[in-house]
Amino acid sequence: MNFSNLSEIATYIVSEGKGILAADESNPTCKKRFDTISVESTEENRRDYRELLFSSKGMSENIGGVILFDETIRQKTDAGQSLVDLILESGALPGIKVDKGLKPFEGSEVETLTQGLDDLDERCAEYAKLGAKFTKWRAVINIGDGIPTQECIDANMEALAKYAKIAQKNGMVPIVEPEVLINGKHTIEDCYDATSRSIKSLFDYLKSYDVDVTGTILKPNMVTAGSDSDQKSSVEEVGEMTIKCLNESVPDELPGVAFLSGGQTEIESTEHLDKMNKIGGFAWKLSFSYGRALQQSALNAWLGKPENKNAGQQAFAHRAKMNKLAALGIWSADLEN
Ligand code: 13P
C-alpha cells in the first residue's frame, strides 16, 4: 500500500465500511480485561491474544487500522513475523497510542489532563520508523456536579491540537479522541452539552494550530445518557442527537469519524452506528474505532486457551463484519444469529 499524503491514509482507514480495531490497552488495562477471564497478563499472553485477533479472517475487508500499544508494535508472532507485518498483510494499517495517560487537572479530584507532549516528537519519529501510519491521543472529559469546566475542556483540546500537529509533522495521521465518559447519572442532554463544547473547542484549536483536518480522524463518544442514569434513550434519539452534535462543529473536509464504544455493549455499539448511517445527512464517513465492543465476545470465547483460538477468531470476525455493515448502514438484528 502506497500513500502519497495523510489524507489518503485517513481516507483508506475508513473506506468501504472499514473501521478501526482499538487494541491499544495499556498493560494495566489489559490486566483488567484478562482478569475477567482469569488469564494472567504476561507479555506472552498479551502477544498471543493480539496475534489471535490480527490473524483472524475478520480483519480483511472490515478493519482499516489497528491501534497498538508501545509493547505490541515491537512484538513478533510465534513464527517470528512482526505484528506490524501481520496487520499489513491483512490489509489494515498499524497505528500507535502516543498519549501517556491522565493526571489531575490543576489539582482537581475529578477532572484530568492527558499527558505525553514532552518527548512526543522523538517518540513519533521512532514509531514512524517502526511502521506506524497513524497515532491516537485520548482526552477524557467527566460529567458531574459543575463539570466539565470550560478550562479543563480547553486545556485538553489544546493538547490534542499540539499532539495532532506533531503527529502530522512525522508523517502520521492523528486520531483525535475527546472522550466524554459514559460514567454517571447524567442525562442525554448533559452529554450533548459536554460533547458539543468539547468538539467545538477541539476544532477551534485544530484550526489555530494549523492542523490539516483532511489528514485527521475524529474519535468521539456517542451522545447517550450516563451509565447510571434513570433515563432510557431510544436508538433513534442517540442517533439523531449524535449526528446533530457532530454537524455543529465537524468540518466537511474531515475524512472520517470513528466512534469509541465507551462501555456500551457490543450490540448497542453496532445498532447505534447503523442507525446513524441509515439516518445520514453528514459529509464524513461514520465508522467505528472500538475496543471492548470488538473484543468482548472474542475474549470470552478464547479464555486464554490455545484450543479456543479458532472460536476467539470467529467471534472477533463476526463483530468486525457486523460493524462494517453498520458503518454502511445495512446491518439488521437478525444478522446477529
Ligand atoms: P472502547 O471502544 O472500549 O471505549 O475503547 C476505545 C478506545 O480506544 C478508548 O481510547
TrEMBL record:
The record ties this protein, via InterPro entries, to: Aldolase_TIM (IPR013785), FBA_I (IPR000741)
Gene3D superfamilies named in the record = Aldolase class I
Segments passing through the bilayer: none
Which keywords label this protein? Glycolysis, Lyase
| E.C. number | 4.1.2.13
Under catalytic activity, the entry for this protein gives: beta-D-fructose 1,6-bisphosphate = D-glyceraldehyde 3-phosphate + dihydroxyacetone phosphate
A GO molecular-function annotation: fructose-bisphosphate aldolase activity
- Which biological pathway? Carbohydrate degradation; glycolysis; D-glyceraldehyde 3-phosphate and glycerone phosphate from D-glucose: step 4/4
SUPFAM superfamilies, from UniProt?
A: Aldolase
A single GO BP: glycolytic process
Xref: Pfam families? Glycolytic (PF00274)
Question: Which family is annotated?
Answer: Belongs to the class I fructose-bisphosphate aldolase family.
Read off the PANTHER family from this record. Answer: FRUCTOSE-BISPHOSPHATE ALDOLASE
Q: Which NCBIfam families match?
A: FrucBisAld_I
What is the protein name stated in its UniProt record? Answer: Probable fructose-bisphosphate aldolase class 1
